[in-house]
Structure formats: C-alpha cells, structure tokens
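Fold this sequence, please.
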Amino acid sequence: MKKILTLLIVLFTITTSSFAQNTIGLRLGGGSQFGAEASYQHVLGSKNRLELDLGIFSSSYNNGNGTVNVSGFKLTGLYQWILPVPELKGFKWYFGAGISVGNNSYSYYKYKHVEYRNTMPSSEMYFGIPLNIGIEYHLTQVPFNISLDYRPEIGTNFHINNGIALGIRYIL
C-alpha cells in the first residue's frame, strides 16, 4: 500500500510539474483587425512549446469605392523555441513558426449611402504562415507572465500581415 501511495505521489508531482508552465490568457494587438486573441501555450519541454491563438474581429474599411463591413475569425498555431536571457532573471526570449486559418465574412457594401448586399463574396477562407519572435517575463509574486512579440505573416494571395502584440497570460 505504501509503495502504491508513493508511486501516486511521484506521478502526481511529475504530472503537475510538467504542466506548471502552461499558460492561458490574452494577446492584445497583433495588427490587421485583431484587437485581442485568446491565447493558450502548452509546454512540450524545457525549450519548446505550442501556442494556439484564436482571434474574432469585426471592422469596417473604405476600399476606395465605399465602405466594406467585414467580420471573421483566425486560429493560429505556432511551434516555439524558448531560450533564457542570462543577464535578466525571469526573462526569456522565443521564436517560432506555424500556420493559421481563418474566415472573413462580408456583410455589406455601401457606396454613397446606398447599401448593396451580396455584391462581394459573402465569405472567404484565409490560410497563412506566421513567424514569431518575442520576449517574456515571468512575474515572481503572482502566477502571470507578460510578453511582447512581433508576428509577420504571409497569407492567401500573398497578403502580408504583421504586428506587435502584448501578451498577458495566467500560468496554470
């Protein structure tokens, strides 16, 4: 019985320590219509992790002929390498690459205050290849980390999106 209890305690300790640096939170900014993304990071080892970000947006823009209202979502998955910054305790920098997929839906098109429906494709799929580089700091008094990153992305029809984002995540 003692051996089983000891084994369970050891397994519990290993399991919880391996998930100790997984995070969940928000990535704020990032460019091209995405004001905030829900973000989850899953640690794969001491120097690697997966990051999943889901952004939902709604915006309007003028295309030169009138106003287009567009809404949609984008899911981004990244594989990242994590390295410490030796001179700065608590800081790490990271870089990675991945894929993204999303959908843009066009609701209507206005020209000179006249509304036209279905004059544009009602929706389109989006695929992209993002790169990522950033720095993060693990707060010592509370279970949060803060990050700042740059993410250029080339997407469908060679559309280029890039932006700087601030991440605030809770360490699970």
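Residues 4-19 have pLDDT under 50 and may be disordered. The radius of gyration is 21 Å.
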